[in-house]
Design goal:
With 420 residues, the protein is of the alpha/beta class. It folds into two domains: 2-279, Spore Coat Polysaccharide Biosynthesis Protein SpsA, Chain A, CATH 3.90.550.10; 307-413, Hexapeptide repeat proteins (UDP N-Acetylglucosamine Acyltransferase, domain 1), CATH 2.160.10. It contains eleven helices and 31 strands. Helix 1 (2-12) packs across helix 6 (142-152). The protein is globular.
Length: 420
């Protein structure tokens, strides 16, 4: 009971700031009209729902969401799905858009995004500030991170995970630690990452999640703001500048859930976005979306259930090894190994395989689609073939990824753009 109360006190004394202003340029046209954290995932969620759900399930009830790039759909989603918290009860999920509070500039980097909201954070009077990336998919109990930070006497703690050295090169911030996990060195996206102690094939990569003692954070942000040569970034500037003289520790991310491996995905490319959605189709996926003790909360429209119609030999409405969301109608068509978001309609004699289909898509008759991502609101003309011949896909104006996933958007189909 004393341990539960200790954790409860830690979470109550914490203010979480989710950095959700990034574009996600490696997703190409998929983020032309939405920020990466607003991107759909898993049949009914948006990426921002994962760090928000982690906060609420961990007992952290004071949360700010920092927005910037094309944030309309993100703000709309957060207000609809997360706007019911009561400030009077010490809980809130607030939008913090770029508003030039401390300079004439918009947010210049991750550190600047926090610096420009210092007055808002100070008003909350937290003992700890947790800075979280808003564009990764994972389940994490932040209470363990907070407890490790408090018990180590750290000024800052960096959440990290072990990844193969080859995968980390040029992709992650990588840290060097001693036996007590105190950070001795930190490089932002090095081409030759330093390996973990005793394991030359693995390295410790930053998850972009940090815990600070509040006053220490403010001091470092003010120093950084006065440095004309700074990129205003935690990984490039803040962390390297403090590790020598201050207590900065690493916290290896491990699953807090029984019999579950730690799950974390950076769905920052078309291939990784497609693959992470496909992983959910496994009978026992690495990411458990069905755990009632750790729900992923989101905004849910009131939609009718999915429907499958016609049972003729050549015209059977069916879906196998797939996720089919509310409002979908599979009318005399076949869906295999695919994720269909809400209100997708697949018409007779069509086949959809190994694909991610975002909301409000209509696939007309006699279409064949495989290994594809179909963006929201697309209307696929009758008889269209996608994913079977990459040269043909490119000739139609579709984008084909490095690993052969075809992206189709409304603009590519000549439809009005701006559908988020």
């Amino acid at each position: 009971m004393s341990n539960v109360r200790y954790i409860s006190n830690l979470t109550r004394e914490t203010y979480a700031l989710i950095l959700a202003g990034g574009r996600g340029s490696r997703l190409h046209e998929l983020t032309d009209w939405r920020a990466k954290p607003a991107l759909y995932f898993g049949g009914k969620f948006r990426i921002i729902d994962f760090p928000l759900s982690n906060c609420i399930n961990s007992g952290i009830r004071r949360v700010g969401v920092v927005t910037q790039y094309k944030s309309h759909s993100l703000i709309r989603h957060v207000m609809r799905g997360w706007g019911h918290f009561k400030k009077e009860l010490g809980e809130s999920v607030e939008i913090l858009p770029a508003s030039q509070r401390y300079s004439e500039n918009w947010y210049q980097g991750t550190a600047d995004a926090v610096f420009q909201n210092i007055d808002i954070i100070r008003h909350e009077l937290p003992k700890y500030v947790m800075v979280l990336s808003g564009d990764h998919v994972y389940r994490m109990d932040y209470a363990g991170l907070l407890a490790a930070h408090a018990e180590s006497g750290a000024d800052m703690t960096v959440s990290c995970l072990e990844v193969p050295v080859a995968e980390a090169a040029g992709a992650f911030g990588v840290m060097e630690v001693d036996e007590d996990l105190r950070i001795l060195g930190f490089e932002e996206k090095p081409q030759q990452p330093k390996h973990s102690p005793g394991n030359p094939e693995m390295c410790l990569a930053s998850m972009g999640n940090y815990v600070f003692n509040t006053e220490f954070l403010f001091e470092q942000l003010k120093k950084d703001a006065q440095n004309a040569n700074s990129d205003r970034d935690f990984g490039k500037d803040i962390i390297p500048s403090i590790i020598e003289k201050h207590k900065v520790f690493a916290y290896p991310f491990k699953s807090a859930f029984p019999n579950e491996q730690a799950y974390w995905r950076d769905v920052g490319t078309l291939d990784s976005f497609w693959q992470a959605n496909m992983e959910l189709l496994s009978p026992t996926p690495a990411l458990n979306l069905y755990d009632a003790k750790w729900p992923i909360w989101t905004y849910q429209e009131q939609l009718p259930p999915a429907k499958f119609v016609f049972d003729d030999d050549d015209r059977r409405g069916m879906a196998v090894d797939s996720i089919i969301s509310g409002g979908c109608i599979i009318s005399g068509a076949t869906v295999r190994r695919s994720v269909l978001f809400n209100e997708v309609r697949v018409c007779s004699y069509s086949l959809v395989e190994d694909s991610v289909v975002l909301p409000d898509v209509v696939v007309l008759r006699h279409c064949k689609i495989k290994n594809a991502i179909i963006d929201r609101g697309c209307i696929i003309p009758e008889g269209t073939v996608i994913g079977y011949n990459h040269d043909h896909d490119r000739a139609k104006g579709f984008r084909v990824s490095e690993k052969g996933i075809t992206l189709v958007t409304r603009d590519m189909l000549g439809l009005p753009v701006g559908y988020e």
